[in-house]
Write a structure and sequence with these properties.
The chain is of the alpha/beta class and about 475 residues long. It has helices at about 1-35, 80-90, 130-140, 185-200, 225-230, 255-270, 300-310, 315-325, 335-345, 370-380, 390-395, 455-470, and strands at about 100-105, 115, 150-155, 160, 165-170, 205-210, 240, 275-280, 290-295, 415-425, 425-435, 440-450.
């Protein structure tokens, strides 16, 4: 009897427990359906598919950007050599150029010589020599490379500013959109002051290490007056505004651009509360010390554009030293010129008769032939050498830019000539390209190195008239 009662009681208890579980489950399911408690059951409407990723108004798939100018038509006939030669003959007898004139005119596409006068005879190139330096730089160096100006910690109370070849520093803040003044000493000072503050240093002794370059900083072939007259600065591993002592293209240059830059840097530090003890002194052993701060120049390709367009002698010499360093040669006048000619020779140009005393063309004693100059210019326009195109487009444009901005202004050749100028006392030269009236591109080089007294105006008029005649030439 007791056993039967016990079993019945257990059955009832189990049934009640089951009912409680069922009711609880049903209650939870109901609560889940109304999203009161977590669960997978819901009476809410289904979630809509996500909207497609938004498309910007007017956005389209990118297409190839159309070229502003098409390729030159190779089917355009060459100018008749006899007619081009007649223009050359008229030029070399022009009294405005004097008795020593060399000329060559070459078809850009084929390399055929159309006309010339003593094209293989060496003459003073003046600044047309800068074309060789530009070609050498863009074949030897990384066009995107920059030149670092660094500040390093020498010891607990001494820092040094170390030059990396940038003579185009701004005295104040740098301008990232510029080539001249791309990096600034105010920026370098601010970064240095921050690093010194972290070390608890508020006063330092300042050294300057410009030992990157070797040999004399001025060429024996330069007129000593050139520095004072602003045509060139001593070539050093750092400088402010290419060594200028005041604003102006031909302002006098400092006799020691590195020390001048260090003094400006000390002034910038002082403005930030960092005391500088005494005057900056030179050292040659700071290059491997711990770096505190740095600024970087514009890329090498922009620097090449700058010296081609402005014909800056100092910057050209700096770049030639960088080419020498890359080639394992001394970064000096001799090493720079050897490196430049070596790089040009590597491109297949015959340099056997060439002589460069400096890389800028300012010194006495350099000699290049019109034919060699034309060969180098033609290389810069050759599709097989795209790395040299920045030399071609970096040269001044007639009537529009650089040292040709005020020439050809009333000529139909305006905008159709890209060329490098060359000017020294009794020397006037021009080498570049011109489009004739049928859009055939011609390469030319004109070199006159015994021009009469009276300056540059008359010989330039003679050369510009000749090049304008090439641009107007039907010559069929």
């Amino acid at each position: 009897m007791t056993t039967g009662v016990t079993m019945a009681t257990a059955t009832r208890v189990a049934g009640v427990g089951t009912l409680v579980v069922v009711l609880a489950a049903g209650g939870y399911a109901t609560a889940d359906a109304y999203d009161v408690v977590p669960g997978i059951v819901t009476l809410a409407p289904p979630v809509a598919d996500p909207a497609p990723f938004p498309t910007a108004p007017g956005a389209v798939e990118p297409t190839t950007v159309p070229r502003a100018l098409g390729d030159l038509d190779p089917q355009v006939p060459l100018p008749a050599s006899a007619q081009v030669q007649a223009l050359v003959d008229g030029l070399v007898t022009d009294a405005r150029l004097g008795p020593s004139v060399g000329v060559v005119v070459v078809d850009q596409l084929t390399g055929e010589v159309l006309a010339g006068h003593q094209p293989d005879a060496g003459r003073v190139p003046a600044s047309t020599a800068k074309v060789l330096t530009g070609v050498a730089a863009l074949t030897a160096l990384d066009p995107a490379a920059t030149l670092a100006t660094r500040v390093v910690r020498v010891d607990d109370g001494t820092i040094a500013i170390v030059g990396g070849g940038d003579m185009m520093l701004a005295a104040g803040a740098g301008d990232p959109s510029a080539t001249l003044g791309h990096a600034g000493l105010a920026d370098l000072a601010a970064r240095t002051a921050s690093a010194l503050a972290l070390q608890g240093v508020s006063s330092v002794r300042l050294l300057v290490d410009d030992s990157l370059f070797t040999g004399p900083s001025t060429s024996p072939g330069w007129d000593p007056a050139n520095v004072g007259e602003g045509f060139v600065a001593p070539v050093t591993a750092l400088g402010v505004d290419v060594g200028r002592l005041r604003e102006g293209e031909y302002a006098p240059r400092s006799p020691d651009p590195s020390i001048q830059a260090a003094k400006v840097f000390a002034q910038r530090l002082g403005e930030l509360g960092v005391g500088v003890q005494g005057s900056p002194a030179r050292t040659t052993t700071a290059g491997d010390a711990i770096e505190l701060a740095r600024v970087e120049s514009a890329p090498v390709v922009d620097i090449v554009h700058y010296f081609l367009e402005t014909s800056d002698n100092t910057v050209t010499e700096v770049v030639s030293r960088l080419v020498a360093l890359d080639g394992g040669l001394p970064p000096s006048f001799d090493g720079g010129t050897q490196a430049v000619l070596h790089q040009v020779a590597q491109l297949g140009v015959d340099v056997s008769g060439a002589r460069l005393v400096d890389a800028s063309g300012l010194a006495d004693g350099s000699s290049l032939s019109p034919a060699m100059l034309a060969d180098v210019v033609r290389l810069t326009t050759d599709a097989a050498h795209p790395e040299l195109r920045d030399v071609a487009v970096g040269m001044p444009v007639a009537g529009l830019s650089g040292t040709l901005h005020d020439r050809y202004t009333r000529s139909d050749a305006r905008g159709l000539v890209r060329a490098k100028t060359g000017s020294l006392p009794h020397v006037t030269s021009l080498a570049g390209t011109v489009l004739d009236d049928q859009r055939r591109q011609l390469v030319f080089a004109v070199m006159a190195d015994q021009t009469p007294d009276g300056g540059q105006w008359a010989p330039r008029q003679a050369i510009d008239g000749f090049v304008s005649a090439l641009a107007d030439c039907g010559c069929r």
